[in-house]
Amino acid sequence: MSSVVKIINSRKTREIQDLQHLSKEELIERIHQLESHVTQLRNLLKPKVTLDNPKNKHSPKVFDHKRYAKRHVLLQVAYVGWDYAGFVVQEHTEKTIEAELFKALEKTRLVESRETSNYHRCGRTDKGVSSFGQAVSLDLRSNLSEGKGVFLPDGHQAKPGTTNEIAYVAILNKVLPPEIRVIAWAPVEKTLSARFDCRQRTYHYYFPKANLDIESMRIAAQQVIGEHDFRNFCKMDVGNGVVKFHRRIMDIQIEAIDNSTDSYSMMRLTLIGQAFLWHQVRCIVAILFLVGQGKEDTKVITDLLDVERNPRKPQYGMASEVPLNLFHCSYSDADCQLIYDVESLRYVISCYQTLWAENSIKTTMLREMLDNLEKLGGIKVQNQLKGLVHGIEPKTYVPLMKRQKCESLEERINAYAKRQRIEIVDSNVTSVG
């Protein structure tokens, strides 16, 4: 049995009743008041005259990028990425490093648009990952008419006598968010690509010593050096055409950052390679953590690199993204000579010192609270790694090589090809219908 609920607006009812008792003159006065109120609202809702509105007599001329020379440059960009959705622009959010970088570039009129800037990036860092040495190459507006990387657009008239280049670093840092800073720039040849001409990339991963056997981790880590098939140390990206997983690791080191010897002392893993697969560094770190905790033998790295015997990746959680930093991107000295400005560096240091102070204070406060808790209980807990590896930790540990396996590369390729064929058939049926 259904029922109908009628909602009565008592206020509206009272207003109607009040109007019924008004005289003709009072009704006319009320109408005038309402018309005046509507006029006020329309004025408030009118679009404001913008600087780019050609009807605005006092608006400045539209900035004409064709009047200026261009210069192909490489920028070293640092960022603390913990609160960002990654480096690359994404459709569902504007909170990315790349989006903020291009906002600054367009606001300062250094580029007209991303599409016309000949833009390349070195690394695609994921959500939460930071960088000290990210590199991007692109064409920027220039004051000069000649020099390395300088070129003149069609119809541009050279202006001889100008010798001072635009202060790219200082200008951009004034409009970028505090977590993002340009460290240096370099004039480069127009053909140089930050992505394809990078000779090697260096990643840093920071973690507490906790109860880890660092020496066992170092022994295991040496096995990744050289060229290997790293399909068991990454997230396969078959959908984007990645079907080859050979990469070359040049060096890997694990060293202490401070002089402390307790479980709170901080360590740094340095990994150097020519190029990396999706999540490769975090997968390597996750396996090394298992070795350091004594859950896996040092030879587990060799077993996972042997894709003939182990073509399917065992399921395991990745290491957290927060401690990861793309620290350096290397280019030929002949191709790229970075220019550092002392005043700009001073500004960047001051900005990052503010971030350091905020986070260091939080760390110091937590450490003092932990010290007092341990004194109260007369105990020592070495669980600092909790939260640094994604996934649920089982009550009973299952060795990696005995765990459930993911699909093999061939199975993934076949599954992707099948999905593509189905989508093509579906699209054809839809178009015919």
CATH architecture of the domain at 200-331 and 387-410: 2-Layer Sandwich
| Number of helices, counting only DSSP H or I runs of 4 residues or more | 9
The CATH superfamily of the domain at 200-331 and 387-410 is identified as Pseudouridine synthase I, catalytic domain, C-terminal subdomain
Low-confidence stretches: 1-14, 48-52
Termini, distance in Å? Answer: 42 Å
Beta-strand portion reads 15-25%
Q: How do the helices and strands follow one another from N- to C-terminus?
A: HHEHEEEHEEHEEEHHEHH
What does the oligomeric state look like here?
single chain
- Major sheet details: 10 strands, mixed
Structure commentary:
The protein is α+β, with helices and mostly antiparallel strands and 433 residues long. Among the domains are: 68-187, 2-Layer Sandwich (Alpha-Beta Plaits); 200-331 and 387-410, Pseudouridine synthase I, catalytic domain, C-terminal subdomain (Alpha-Beta Plaits). The protein is built from 9 helices and 10 strands. β2 and β3 (130-142) form a beta hairpin.
